[in-house]
Amino acid sequence: MTLPEIDRDALMVILTSVLILIGGFIAAIWLFRLLKRILKKYKNPAFMRIASIIQYPFKVLVLLVALNFIRVHLQSSIIEGSNLGQLFYILFLVVITWLAISIIRAVKAVIIANYDVGIEDNLKARKIHTQIKVFERIAVVLVVFFTIAMALLSFEAIRQVGVSLLASAGIAGIIIGFAAQKSISMLLAGFQLAITQPIRLDDVVIVEGEWGKIEEITLTFVVVAIWDKRRMVVPVTYFIDTPFQNWTRQTSEILGTVFIYVDYGFPVDRLREFMTQSLSENPHWDGKVNVLQVTDCTERSMELRALASAKDSGTAWDLRVKLREDLIEFIRLNYPAYLPQNRIKMEESNS
Questions:
Q1: Orientation angle between helical segments 181-196 and 123-153, nearest 10 degrees
Q2: What is the DSSP letter of 167?
């Protein structure tokens, strides 16, 4: 075979490879457009959202198939004896994992798009958001773990080591089980949180004496946003093993409580009338609960408890602050003599 013939053969192989690559690029775009056209027929925006999220890993996968054709063609024509199969196997695993994770996130985005947590009555929405986000993390971890395992098993040396370790798998399993006991319990607690949901995203809770909202839930820890912008990171096992307060477990509505201490001669009915007037002008009151009661008494004063309702805990705080201010101001201006007093009885001695 002459040199020009060799050059001609090499040129044909290279030209064929370039054509295959261009064809793969065109096929990736055409197939994705075809997929979008098919999904448009269903007139469901959720399907289009899925298509937009998976478009890049889908196109890369089609291109990788074209590159694999080029690899097979080159090995049989120019670089005989070389073995790129291992590399392409790893690349296929990576791209398929990317596609699988994109599909998981697309499905999550479609589901939670139907449940808006910004509405006033968002209990069901927060429940769905919590479950879907936890299950998404679980699915992603499993997909990545499976990919890494498949990639490692493709190497002959690692596979042989694995086979040789099978004989001691029982002992190794016991050792690993003891070593990972805490991590496994936290993962199981994460599963339990997702299913039973003692807490949900945006729930108002009292944890370690701190008032805050559930900001993030992962498989191993929960982030609580404290009212003063701090963040408390709590292991998920805390919400399984330790009692805590959840103010929005069933509903976001909550009662605000204000305690006032006055002298025994104070006219409670007058304050009750004023409280009704004050609440009617308070933008934070939801108009449902308006109660003023004498709940306790001491040797110095009697305790008045004012109850008023609000749509959520944040609003209840503002309601309580304004109501307390109004009640104190009313007593100060109209009945200052009935603020708590110390009574001392003086007795004259006969001597």
A1: 140
A2: G
Opening angle at CA 21, ends 15 and 26, nearest 5: 125
Place of tokens 């912008």: 229
DSSP one-letter code for 221: E
Task: Give yes or no for residue 21 having a pLDDT over 60.
Answer: yes
**Which of 294, 281, 290, 326 lies closest to 310 in space, CA to CA?**
290
pLDDT digits (tens, 9 = 90+) for 49-66: 666 777 777 777 777 777
Backbone angles phi, psi at 295, to 5 degrees: -105, -15
pLDDT in tens, 279-290: 999 999 988 889
Residue 273 predicted with pLDDT over 80? yes
Closest CA to 329 of 281, 260, 282: 260
Residue that has been written with the tokens 């937009």 in this structure: 52
DSSP 251-315: -S-EEEEEEEEE-TT--HHHHHHHHHHHHHT-TT--SS-EEEEEEEE-SS-EEEEEEEEESSHHH
Residue 101 is encoded by which pair of tokens? Answer: 């994770």
Both tokens of residue 149? Answer: 């395992």
**pLDDT of 293 higher than 80:** yes
DSSP helix/strand/coil, 226: strand
Model confidence band, residue 143 (pLDDT cutoffs 50, 70, 90)? confident
Q: Report, in angstroms and rounded to the nearest whole number, the Rg of the chain calculated over CA atoms.
A: 35
* Integer Cα distance of 54 and 59 in angstroms: 9
For 192: left if phi > 0, alpha if psi spans -120 to 50, otherwise beta; the answer is alpha
Task: Report d(CA 80, CA 62) in Å as an integer.
Answer: 25
Q: Which two tokens stand for residue 191?
A: 């599963």
Q: What is the pLDDT of residue 123?
A: 67
Answer whether 301's CB lies under 8 Å from 263's CB.
Answer: yes
